[in-house]
Design goal:
Elements lengths: L7 H15 L1 H33 L27
C-alpha cells in the first residue's frame, strides 16, 4: 500500500505526530476541514476537462439577415436623369 509514495509505517508516524501536535479534538476538526478542501479540489479538477471541451467546440453559425441588398439594384443608388 503506497499512499502518495508513503508506506504504511510512515503514514502511521505522520498520524501519530499530528495527534501529538494538534490533540484529539483539534485533529478531528482539522481532518474534517481538510476533507472539505479535498472534495472541493476534486470537484473543480473534474470540471476542467468539461470546460476545455466547451472551448474546443466550434461556435454556432450566425444567422443570416432576412434580406441582403442586391448589389445590382438601383433602388439604393438612383441614377440622376440624363440630360
Amino acid at each position: 500500500m503506497n499512499f502518495f509514495g508513503i508506506g504504511p509505517l510512515e503514514l502511521l508516524f505522520v498520524i501519530m505526530l499530528a495527534l501529538l501536535v494538534l490533540g484529539p479534538n483539534r485533529m478531528v476538526d482539522t481532518a474534517r476541514t481538510l476533507g472539505k478542501y479535498l472534495r472541493e479540489f476534486q470537484r473543480i479538477t473534474s470540471e476542467i476537462p468539461r470546460l476545455i471541451s466547451l472551448d474546443d467546440e466550434p461556435s454556432p453559425p450566425r444567422s443570416a439577415p432576412d434580406k441582403l441588398p442586391d448589389p445590382k439594384s438601383d433602388e439604393d443608388n438612383p441614377k440622376p436623369p440624363e440630360a
